[in-house]
Amino acid sequence: MNAKKKNKIKMSTTDKIISLIIYAVYTMFAFVCAYPFYYIFINTISSNDLSKRGKVLFWPKELHWTNYEQVLQIPELFDALKISIARTVIGTVVAVMIAAFLGYMFTRETMWGRKFWYRFVAITMYFNAGIIPWFLTMDKLGLRNNFWVYILPMAVVPFNIILCKTFVEALPKELQEAAVIDGAGTLTIFFKIIVPVIKPIVATVAIFSAVNQWNAFQDTLLLITDKKLYTLQYLLYNYINQASSLAGLVNSTSSSASMAASLAHAQTATSIRMTVTIIVVTPIMLVYPFFQKYFTKGIMIGAVKG
Question: What is d(CA 213, CA 220) in angstroms, rounded to the nearest whole number?
């Protein structure tokens, strides 16, 4: 007990005041970040009439889940969800593998034209031809109304490659040198040596890629006319712009068994916008807990001894 008391650091009054100010500032910052999502959510489960008039601010009023039951019956919603999940999963895997492999290859002095190709990739971060040349290029490549328009243009991301290259350069060279001495080839070193120890940066790149893929809708807007290839974000874009007419559609298609509930909680443009927003945002929020642990995990502890 005496040892514990001696190890305690006594804080002065000034330090306590500064700590309280810091806690207060960060608490306010966290509130500012979290409140918009919370506000949207409580409005989706409150009376649609009160929500429309801006009466729901901090606590839900006249709690109900009718909005979700009715919005989930909107045609094409689940088809768009499948496309969004497919493009996010496939696009993330492809982007992560390319970023990790190119980041690794750009650190190998034996790679032919290594400096040229690295600069060739990096320079694309600073120059952009614009939407019209991009549209014409996608059209010439046959990617209009093609699922691969969601994958190929976002496969090579210079920023992610630079992140991976920087991380690989910080690894002990003994890891690769030992593998070369044992006769391992480039792919063997990459998959068995490099990939297991770069999980933190792989997780970071995966989150960046997944969020970009999930939130993207401009490619659908410009290149997709086939409704079977619409993404959830594009439907959200349409629903927000056409919320009033969509609310009327949802109300008119309500079953007779739930007619009383429909009358009590008739859909409005506001309820449609907020409910669809929650449905679209929630899946990507579930991704973070699975990758968060890799940001601080000491994956390299004990990898090289001596």
Answer: 12
- Number of C-beta neighbours around residue 160 at 10 A: 24
List of E strands, the chain: none
Burial class (CB in 10 A: 0-12, 13-18, 19+), 109: exposed
* pTM over cut 0.70: yes
Q: What whole-number distance in Å separates Cα of residue 58 and Cα of residue 75?
A: 32
Distance CA 123, CA 158 (A): 8
267-304 residue pLDDT tens: 676 777 788 788 878 877 777 777 666 655 534 433 44
Domain covering 77-228, topology: MetI-like fold (1.10.3720)
SS3 151: coil
Q: Kindly report, residue by residue over 164-208, the tens digit of the pLDDT.
A: 888 888 888 777 778 778 777 788 888 888 888 888 888 888 888
Residue that the structure tokens 């001495």 belong to: 181
* Three-class SS state of 239: helix
CA dist 155 and 151 (Å) reads 6
Q: Where in the chain is the domain with CATH 1.10.3720.10?
A: 77-228
Phi and psi dihedrals of 302, rounded to 5?
80, 10
d(CA 2, CA 4): 5
